[in-house]
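Weekly modeling sync, notes
Attendees: S.R. (lead), two postdocs, one rotation student

Agenda item 3: backlog of single-chain predictions. S.R. asked that every request posted to the team notebook include the full sequence so nobody has to chase files. The rotation student volunteered to paste the first one in as an example of the format we agreed on. Action items at the bottom.

Example entry:
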Amino acid sequence: MSVKVTTVVKQVPSYSRNTEDVLPLLKVWLSDHDERYQRKAKKIFENAGVDKRYSIMNPDEVFTATSFEEKNNIYRRECIELAEKTAKKALKESGLDAKDIDYIISVSCTGIMIPSIDAYLINRLGMKQDVVRLPVTEMGCVAGVSAFIYANKFLKANPNKRALILAIESPTATFQLNDYSMTNIVSAAIFGDGCSCAILSSYEEEEGPEIIGEAMYHFYDAEHMMGFELTNTGLQMVLDKEVPDKIAEHFPMIVYPFLENHGLTIQDVDHLIFHPGGKKIVNTIQEIFGSLGKNIDNTKEILREYGNMSSATVLYVLERFISQKPKKGDIGLMLSFGPGFTAQRLLLRW
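Predicted structure, as returned to the notebook:
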C-alpha cells in the first residue's frame, strides 16, 4: 500500500514584526534591569537567526499582563479561525471536498482546548460524521512528524482513504511577562506563530512524494530537556542548554541505522527536511552534514523568515521543498526533535 503526501500548505497569522522592530519593545520590557543584562538579551535576539516572526496577537496583547485564562482564550479564538482558513486552503489546492477526508489529526501544544481544534473543523468545514479524529497535544516540536507517522499507519491499513494533518502553534501565547530568565528570553527570540496543513492519501492514482519509511527514537532519562511547566501564569518554557550537544551525541544512532533499515546511506538522501529548532541546533546539524556535502538551506531560511513555530515548522520546510519540484526518484529525510526527549524520522521518495 502506497501512502503519498498530496498537498502541503502554510498560513501565517495576522500580526508580524521584524526583529529590529521587536528590540524597542524588548528594551521597554527589560527597563528595570541593568544595562549589561539588557545588552545580553538584545544580543540573543540579534543572533537568533530570525529576521521576522508572526503572531496571533498584536504586541500590546503580548506585553500586557493577563491571566492564563485570558491568554488561552485568545489562543482558542484565533487558532480556530486560523486553522479553518488553512484547512480550506489545503482542500482547495487539492481539489477535494471536506467530506473526502477520512482521518483528521490536529497538532498543537501552545494552548489548552477541550474539545480540540479538529472538533471545530468538523463542524466548520462540514466534514462527514464518521471521520476519525486524533488530537496530538503534548509532543511539542516533534508532533508534526508524529502526525505524518500516525497518518501513514492509518492509511497503509486502509486503501483509498485520505488524512488531513493540521499543525497550529502560538508560542507567543506562552510568553511569560514576569519571567526574566534566559530560557524565556531565548524562547521569545526564536519562536513565532504559524499554521500548516497537509493531506495524505492511499489512493494509488493520486500523486505526491511517497512515504517509504518512518520511525521514532527516544532518548533515555531526558524528560527534563524540553517542554512546558504548567504554572498559574500559563505554559512556561523548559529548554535545556544541553539540547544541541545531546542531538550531536545521538545523531549517528538517529540517522544511520534508520537509513540502513531502508537500504540507504546518507549519500542517497537528496533533500534534508529538518525542523529548525533554533540557531544552535541548526548549526549543529549543519556541521554534521556540511562535511558530507549536504546542506540545510531551506531549514535555515524557514527559521529566518518565520522563526520556530513548534510542530508546524517542519511542514513549512516540506512545503518549500515541494514547491521546488524535486526530481522523480529523489529521496527526502524529514526529521524533528521534541519533548521526551525524542527524535522522529520520515523518508519520502518523489
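Discussion: group reviewed the output briefly. The first strand starts at residue 4 and ends at 11.
Action items: rotation student to repeat for the remaining queue; S.R. to check formatting next week.
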